[in-house]
Automatic annotation (TrEMBL):
Catalytic center residues: 270
Pfam families: Aldedh
Keyword Oxidoreductase: yes
Superkingdom of origin: Bacteria
The family this protein is said to belong to: Belongs to the aldehyde dehydrogenase family.
PROSITE patterns the record matches: ALDEHYDE_DEHYDR_CYS, ALDEHYDE_DEHYDR_GLU
Domain Aldehyde dehydrogenase per the UniProt entry, residue ranges: 32-494
Matches recorded under InterPro entries: Ald_DH/histidinol_DH, Ald_DH_C, Ald_DH_CS_CYS, Ald_DH_CS_GLU, Ald_DH_N, Aldehyde_DH_dom
Protein name: Aldehyde dehydrogenase
Transmembrane stretches, start-end: none
Alphabetized UniProt keyword annotations: Oxidoreductase
Gene3D superfamilies (UniProt xref): Aldehyde Dehydrogenase, Chain A, domain 1 (3.40.605.10), Aldehyde Dehydrogenase, Chain A, domain 2 (3.40.309.10)
Length: 500
């Protein structure tokens, strides 16, 4: 049976959208069910205001039921004690199903969250690649035999933790989901996913694909709802062994407190950022660098944890370079998310839309020089164009606080030491960029930037082989690469006496 042709135009995507059937119920055990309370919330398309679905609003009773099913599944061993090679086959089947349904999954994220469908397709490639990478890793990780004398045998075994609760954000709904669940499932854990209430629909579609792939009952479950209800219940549960979270630093701190109040569950956090992007005067192709600097903040409407929101430019080239960034931003205007040619889409919801506009107003009030954008588009949807402020200082709110929108703050510097000090003058440390042709400078500055990731002469480079995460108040967890498997595994030391 042949597959339908791939959608190529806005009309193709619109036709596919009209045929969608969206699931809004929770996935507990291995069935879709209403929340115990019967409560629901609306999922809306931020580009049009259209109601997409009414989604189950889960709370503590639903969390208790899901945790019990997860614990039963883990104890039963159908997945947790399954040979790694066999777990790999199931996860590869899931990746294949995601590949076969990638257009539907991408469309769901676009409708639910507002991002351009071309970006959502890129997210799907990342999500599928993550599932496949972690599946292939799991039967290639060995335990250890410690060096001892002949009278003993000492083993270091790697075992699954138990029940993992994953709380993921709304900006990359399915890709962030894959980054959390792939290593956790590959390691043999039972996983309960709490998607953001702002973009829960692709996670629910993923649940049906996971069931089709052959994941046993209770091994993967999805609880839509709010952080202060079902999210809090999972964080406080005495039967959840590990909590993996991507989101704001404020919420990350609350989750660590909940872990301390309950069972000291492991907590892995990937939190906020206010990432510096340093441009030195020795760069050769300023047009190319300016285009990348603009994309670093305006991609995904600026709703990106590693967005290059602080642009630090050597004063010798600052005026010329900022002009080039402004020019590059002209080609990055928001448009219909279903149009494959749109670079930016709509802000995720009214709350985030108002938050970004408030920061733009603050930038004006604080005396920063507005070079581009600054006003919402006249449209039924929630669209804000690329906005650029020059002459920003570290004392300004737009220069120090995470906005999570298409707002770029430009700073100037004269010396390398000044640039490093300014880059590190933040509570965050998720990402940093460095543009220079001087290899000595690159090595010096890279080592001194307080960041979990440094991108040299690029922004957001990397693949599944590279760990993703931050330092300072950007968190302590690592997604991607084989290092993420360490977060979802326990080490057990076994010391055997070979003589009596």
């Amino acid at each position: 049976m042949s597959r339908p042709p791939s959608p190529r135009t806005r009309d193709d995507w619109q036709a596919l959208a009209e045929g969608l059937s969206l699931e809004g119920r929770a996935f507990i055990g291995d069935v879709f069910v209403d929340a115990a309370s019967g409560d629901t919330f609306e999922s809306r398309n931020p580009a049009t205001g259209e109601i997409l679905a009414r989604v189950a609003s889960c709370d503590e009773p639903d969390a208790e039921r899901a945790v019990a099913a997860a614990r039963e599944a883990f104890a039963g061993g159908e997945w947790s004690r399954l040979a790694p090679g066999k777990r790999k086959k199931v996860l590869l089947r899931l990746a294949d199903l995601m590949e076969a349904n990638k257009h539907e999954l991408a469309l769901i994220d676009t409708l639910d969250m507002g991002k351009p469908v071309s970006s959502s397709l890129g997210d799907m490639a990342g999500a599928i690649g993550c599932i496949r990478y972690q599946a292939e890793c799991i039967d290639k990780l060995y335990g250890e035999v410690a060096p001892t004398g002949e009278e003993t045998l000492a083993l270091v075994l790697r075992e699954p933790i138990g029940v993992v609760a994953a709380i993921v954000p709304w900006n990359f709904p399915l890709m962030m989901t894959a980054w959390k669940i792939a290593p956790a499932l590959a390691a043999g854990n039972s996983v309960i996913l709490k998607p953001s209430e702002k973009s829960p629909l692709s996670a629910l579609r993923l649940a049906s694909l996971a069931r089709e792939a052959g994941l046993p009952r209770g091994v993967f479950q999805v609880l839509p709802g709010f952080g202060h209800t079902v999210g809090k219940a999972l964080a406080l549960s005495m039967q959840v062994d590990c909590l993996a979270f991507t989101g704001s630093t404020q919420v990350g701190k609350q989750l660590m407190q909940y872990a301390g109040q309950s069972n000291l569950k492991r907590v892995y956090l990937e939190c906020g950022g206010k990432s510096p992007n340093l441009v030195f005067a020795d760069c050769k192709d300023l047009d190319r660098v300016a285009s990348h600097a603009a994309a670093a903040i305006f991609h995904n409407q600026g709703e990106v944890c590693i967005a290059g929101s602080r642009l630090l430019v050597e004063n010798a080239i600052r005026a010329e370079f900022v002009d080039k960034v402004v020019e590059a931003a002209k080609a990055m205007q928001p448009g219909d998310p279903l149009d494959p040619g749109s670079f930016m889409g709509a802000m995720v919801d009214e709350t985030q839309y108002r938050r970004v506009l408030d920061y733009i107003a603050k930038g004006r009030e604080e005396g920063a020089r507005l070079r581009a954008g600054g006003q919402a588009l006249e449209s039924p949807g929630l669209f804000i164009p690329p906005t650029i402020f020059d002459g920003v200082t570290p004392a300004m709110a737009i220069g120090r606080e995470e906005i999570f929108g298409p707002v770029l703050s430009v700073f100037g510097f004269d010396t390398e030491e000044e640039a490093i000090a300014m880059a590190n003058d933040t509570p965050y440390g998720l990402a940093a960029g460095l543009w220079s042709q001087d290899i000595d400078r690159i090595m010096r500055v890279t080592r001194r930037l307080q960041s979990g990731q440094v991108f040299v002469n690029n922004w957001a480079g990397g693949d599944q082989t590279m760990p993703f995460g931050g330092v300072k108040q950007s968190g302590n967890g690592r997604d991607k690469s084989h290092h993420s498997l360490e977060e979802y595994s326990e080490l057990k030391s076994v010391w055997m006496s070979l003589t009596l």
